[in-house]
Amino acid sequence: MAVTNNAVIGVALGYIEANPDETDLLRSLIVLALHGPPVVTRSTTPAHVTCSAVLVSPDWRVLQTRRRPARNWRLPGGHIDPEDQSLLGAALRHLATEADVEANGLIPASVLPVDVTAHPIDAVPALSEPEHVHYEATFLLHVDDRTLPEPSARGISRRWVNLADVRGKLGDKLRLASNRAEV
User: Fold this and answer.
1) What distance in Å separates the CA atoms of residue 118 and residue 61, rounded to the nearest whole number?
2) What is the pLDDT of residues 66-108, one digit of tens each?
3) Whole-prediction pTM value?
4) Backbone phi, then psi, for 157, in 5-degree steps?
5) Is the separation of the CB atoms in 80 and 50 below 8 Å?
């Protein structure tokens, strides 16, 4: 079964309960999910949900990926597909397809995202795509070992970066989680 608006609302409300200072960020998404079309469909405007995976090693290094021809390193993630059954499942699928890391052996920190960020996306007239917002739900996953098998697909590059290199609100949340894990 595809991810429903009710499932998104449930995740958003759980996230707000854990992060009450971010209520304003998710208010518009919840209203859209209550009254609008499916918020997991990439054509839904003015906003829809995307997912990403932040995979951390035991020493709290973070996996980043790059697919050719892209030049920038990023967390694996993207749009939700109709066959995805949960937001976490979508993040795991992106981790498998973009980093060639299978879900077996990974330990999710929670079924709720560690972070949600709203990213404004510019219009793409060539694709008849208007300006819109991506609500990116980022899920924290742990792996027992940084040693990963060689990617089976050409064009996939991976690297482990220091936690200090992860900027912004996500970096702050990961550092806090890292400090809790050391206690």
Assistant:
1) 24
2) 877 777 899 999 999 999 999 999 999 999 988 888 888 899 9
3) 0.93
4) -120, 140
5) yes
